[in-house]
Structures are given as structure tokens and as C-alpha cells.
Specification:
It is a single chain. The protein has 397 residues and is of the alpha/beta class. It has 17 helices and eleven strands. The protein has helices spanning 13-24, 40-50, 62-71, 81-90, 107-115, 126-142, 151-159, 162-166, 195-199, 203-206, 216-224, 226-238, 277-285, 316-327, 329-347, 355-365, 375-396, and strands spanning 3-8, 29-35, 54-57, 77-80, 96-99, 119-122, 145-148, 178-185, 246-250, 256-262, 267-271. A seven-stranded parallel beta sheet has the order 4-3-2-1-5-6-7, with helices on both faces. The chain has a four-stranded mixed beta sheet with strand order 9-8-10-11, covered by helices on one side. β6, α6 and β7 form a beta-alpha-beta unit. The radius of gyration is 20 Å and the shape is globular. The mean pLDDT is 94.
């Protein structure tokens, strides 16, 4: 039987890559649901091509999109707003949910998919950064399957023993000998640049990633290394591993996507060309393997592979992620919220690139401990942090 797929954030880069893999395997997959935010024309084109039964758009765009569907003679049920995303993620008609909505906006729908026991292909790292404990509790309760799409987390997943892949509580069993997890980082646009050059960076320079094609927000996060900080937090929850047993290493070539270090001295690494279709194809077909359409890695054409210790002074956001994870869930929520607002302020031309880390540090050091037991608790800390960062941004303008 075909797996029935819903893609949350279908008009973004992860959506593009996922659909390109699905197109290669029409006998395996059926697209039954799509969501989009602002690119209605692109979403309409996807509906024309894949004929989903359900489509979700923001509440204020429902009428406009229904009109587009009618003019195109398409019969899709339109769901609206955050409730529509939650509904789409938990429909009985859906087997697999690709969670690729950027930022905290993707949290509720990802949690809904997990609660419904779906197979969730997770590209929204903020879901675990903000709600890691709650998310993993719900995975255990519902029996949902959580498969990482981030290339680094997918690489670690592939390098773990099969029974640890399927039960992350087993990662600490002595017989498995898992010593440390290693997240590789490209270093983004400013790996070889000075701090002063980062201070004076333009928006165009910050969003120009040397290896990956990504959206603006994640590209800026890569420039500041906050992206790797968020991935550090995500990995800790996803693999049930203390943050002090997760190392970050700069690897500019983006060929080794991450590694697992074992007690006997062995290291297992996953290699491949820097193309998101590889981890997406792995997760879609898991535990099988399918053609992703990616160009085969040519070992004979590779230059030297280099690995560099990260500069935590220059890339302060990475150091802040370690600090937040050690402090607890409330600090991770606050750091993520602060970073989202600060990145947008940079993209709006209000602050410098290096101000992002300074603002994040201020928020992290001015947020008080709060117990996290529910989604409401998470959103309360998120809102509080956003209020603080807006005040700090105002001071810099």
C-alpha cells in the first residue's frame, strides 16, 4: 500500500526536496495533504500537480485560496490557521507527516502529529528545542515514530545500532559502547572571516551559504552558528544524550554529515553530497533504501576533508546553546524565541549580524526559571522572551 503523506510547509525548500523524491516513486507514496503560508500561487501549482485531498492555509488567506482552487477546477478541502495545521497533522487519512514549517509556528502541528501516533519526518528543529521533553514523552505514549530530516541528525541516526534507532533509551546500555555524538558544521558564510567582518556583514552576505540551499532564517542561523546550537539541543532530546556528550566540529566541505564515536575507538560516519534529498529519502523509506535522485559522491574528486574546533568567542550563539541546555527547558525556549526575533530584526535591517548573539545572551541571562509541564507553559516563556528581545532590539535602533 502507498504511504499517505502530508507535508507541512510544502512551499519551502524541504517541501521542494521531499516532493522531488516522492515524484520518483509514485508506486510508494501518495500526497494527501499540503500546507503553505504566503506563496499561494506555488501552493496552487502543487495542488494541481499532486491533487491532495486536504490543503491548509492561514485563516486570512482561505477565501483567496478557495477562489484559486475553484478557478483551477480543483476539489481540495481547505483547512485554516493553526487549527487547520493541527487537523492536517492528525488526520486518519495521513500515515506520514513531514514537519518542515520554520520556527515556533511549526510546534503545535508537529506535536499534534506525534500525539496521533504518526510517523513524523522532523525538519522543524524548534519543535524539540522548545518542547523536547514534552515531545519525547508523547512519542513514548502514542507510539509515534520520529525520524530526523536534518542532515546531521539523520547521519547520527544512520550510524546508531538498529535497536538504538528504535529505542533511544538503549543508547546508554554498556553493550552498545556509544561514547559521544559528533555534529558537523559547515561554518556558514563566515567561517574564514573575522569577527569585524561579521559585524559589518550585509544581509546578502549572511544568507549566502557556501554549500546548502536554504531559506533566509536558517541561512542566517548558519552564519551565527545558532543553527548548530539549535541542532545540539535537538540532538540531546532526540537521542537521549546529555549535552556534554555531544561535540560540534567545523567541517567546511559538508561531506561528512555527522559521526558517532564508540568506546572501542571506532568512529562511524555518514558521508554524501550536500543535498537534503538524501536524508529525506532515507526517512521516507526507512528501514529500506530508495533512489533519492542525488548525484553520487565521487570519492576520487574529493579534496582534503578538514575538521576544525569551533571558535566559541566568535560564534557565541553556539556557546549560548550549551548554556541553555544545561539550564533547562525554559532557557532553550527563551533562546529560540529570542533568536527568531533577533534574526528577523537583522533581516529587516535594524541590527547588525553580531547583535543577534548579544541580544540572545541578554535574554538568556534575564529570563527567570519557570517549570515546563504543558504547551501553554512553553508558549508563556516564548512570549515573555519575545517581549524582552523586542525591548533589547529597540535599544539598538
Amino acid at each position: 500500500m502507498k504511504k499517505r503523506i502530508a507535508i507541512l510547509g510544502a512551499t519551502g525548500s524541504i517541501g521542494d526536496s521531499t516532493l522531488s523524491v516522492i515524484v520518483k516513486h509514485p508506486e510508494r507514496y501518495q500526497v494527501v495533504g499540503l500546507s503553505g503560508f504566503s506563496r499561494l500561487q506555488k501552493l496552487l501549482q502543487l495542488c494541481q500537480k499532486f491533487q491532495p485531498k486536504f490543503v491548509s492555509v492561514p485563516s486570512d488567506k482561505v477565501d483567496a485560496f478557495q477562489s484559486l482552487l475553484k478557478n483551477a477546477n480543483l476539489d481540495c478541502e481547505v483547512l485554516s490557521g493553526s487549527h487547520g495545521l493541527d487537523t492536517l497533522a492528525s488526520l486518519d487519512d495521513v500515515d506520514v507527516v513531514v514537519a518542515s514549517i520554520v520556527g515556533s509556528a511549526g510546534l503545535s502541528s508537529t506535536l499534534s502529529a506525534v500525539k496521533a501516533g504518526k510517523t513524523v519526518l522532523l525538519a522543524n528543529k524548534e519543535a524539540l528545542v522548545m518542547a523536547g521533553e514534552l515531545m519525547m514523552q508523547e512519542v513514548a505514549r502514542s507510539g509515534a515514530t520520529l525520524l530526523p530530516l536534518d542532515s546531521e541528525h539523520n547521519a547520527i541516526f544512520q550510524c546508531l545500532p538498529t535497536h538504538v534507532q528504535q529505542n533511544h533509551q538503549a543508547i546508554h546500555e554498556p553493550k552498545n559502547g556509544i561514547k559521544q555524538l559528533w555534529l558537523t558544521a559547515s561554518g556558514g558564510a563566515f567561517l574564514d572571516k573575522s569577527y569585524e567582518q561579521m559585524q559589518n556583514a550585509s544581509i546578502a552576505q549572511a544568507v549566502k551559504h557556501p554549500n546548502w540551499s536554504m531559506g533566509q532564517k536558517i541561512s542566517v542561523d548558519s552564519s551565527t552558528m545558532m543553527n548548530k546550537g539549535l541542532e545540539l539541543i535537538e540532538a540531546s532530546y532526540l537521542f537521549n544524550m546529555p549535552v556534554d556528550k555531544i561535540q560540534v566540529v567545523m567541517h567546511p566541505q559538508s561531506i561528512v554529515h555527522s559521526m558517532v564515536e564508540y568506546a572501542d575507538g571506532s568512529w562511524l560516519a555518514q558521508l554524501g553530497t550536500p543535498d537534503m534529498r538524501t536524508p529525506i529519502a532515507h526517512a521516507l523509506a526507512y528501514p529500506e533504501r530508495i533512489d533519492s535522485g542525488v548525484t553520487t559522491l565521487d570519492l576520487f574528486s574529493l579534496s582534503n576533508l578538514s575538521f576544525i574546533k569551533p571558535d566559541l568567542t566568535k560564534f557565541k550563539c553556539l556557546a549560548l546553546a550549551y548554556q541553555a541546555m544545561r539550564a533547562g527547558s525554559y532557557a532553550c525556549i527563551a533562546l529560540n524565541a529570542s533568536n527568531e526575533v533577533a534574526v528577523q530584526a537583522f533581516l529587516d535591517g535594524k541590527i547588525r549580524l553580531t547583535d543577534i548573539a548579544e541580544i540572545n545572551e541578554k535574554v538568556l541571562n534575564n529570563i527567570e526559571y519557570q517549570a515546563i509541564h504543558s504547551l501553554d507553559d512553553i508558549l508563556a516563556v516564548d512570549n515573555l522572551a519575545r517581549e524582552k528581545v523586542n525591548a533589547f532590539v529597540g535599544e539598538l535602533i
